[in-house]
Design a protein that fits this description.
alpha+beta, disordered C terminus, 4 helices, eight-stranded mixed beta sheet, Glutaredoxin
Length: 210
């Protein structure tokens, strides 16, 4: 299966990627990774997600901790990255399928042009289930050690990074759904509004909408 990565340096002095593809040692381990998820690397033990700010499409500053209580799939992408463009529709379908169970896909654009570039691009691709988020100065990307695009991280309901996957993947594949559903079933918080996907467009307008 072709795993394509935009091999581009995003900044000087990025943290080195670490982690082995084998499953973690903690109790209640997720299903073995295979297929599109074979490049997924677990963090053992999980580590707290950083609180480096990034921007919502309307210019509001947000942090990963603002979404605690949901399972987050944080995906870094850019309009100039061909594998990212291939991957976005699967992320959109994933949000549609699992958003009601407590998943939120945060697709964070690394485009220097910000919302004026990324927003119309998502519209052109007919991507409406994903909110518009921006890391134009790559502050969050540098903090997380992102070395290439696309790059995805999975964060559990407690705000901990449980693993990451460099490169393109079909996230709405059977193996992707199985992996994410494992974390959706852990620490389920009934007070989280699982029906709210922060989609674009659609009333009422959210903080995270463009």
């Amino acid at each position: 299966m072709n795993k394509i990565v935009c091999i581009v340096a995003l900044a000087v002095g990025l943290n080195a990627f670490t982690g082995a593809p084998a499953g973690p040692a903690w109790a209640d381990a997720p299903p073995p990774v295979s297929g599109w998820m074979e490049q997924f690397s677990f963090k053992d033990p999980p580590r707290p997600a950083p609180q480096t700010p990034f921007l919502a499409g309307n210019g509001a500053e947000v942090k990963l901790g603002d979404f605690q209580g949901r399972v987050l799939l944080v995906n870094f992408w850019a309009t100039w990255c061909a594998p990212c463009i291939r991957e976005l529709p699967s992320l959109d379908r994933l949000q549609l399928r699992l958003g009601g169970e407590g998943l939120l896909v945060l697709a964070i654009s690394q485009d220097r042009g910000g919302a004026e570039v990324a927003g119309p691009f998502l519209e052109k691709l007919d991507i409406h289930r994903l909110g518009l988020f921006l890391d134009s100065k790559m502050r969050l990307g540098r903090t997380l050690g992102i070395r290439a695009l696309p790059w995805s991280l999975l964060i559990d309901r407690e705000g901990r990074i449980v693993g990451e996957l460099p490169g393109y993947a079909e996230w709405d594949s059977d193996e992707g759904i199985a992996l994410i559903r494992h974390y959706l079933e852990q620490g389920r918080d009934e007070e989280v509004n699982k029906a709210d996907c922060f989609c674009r467009p659609g009333p009422p307008k959210k903080l995270y909408d463009k």
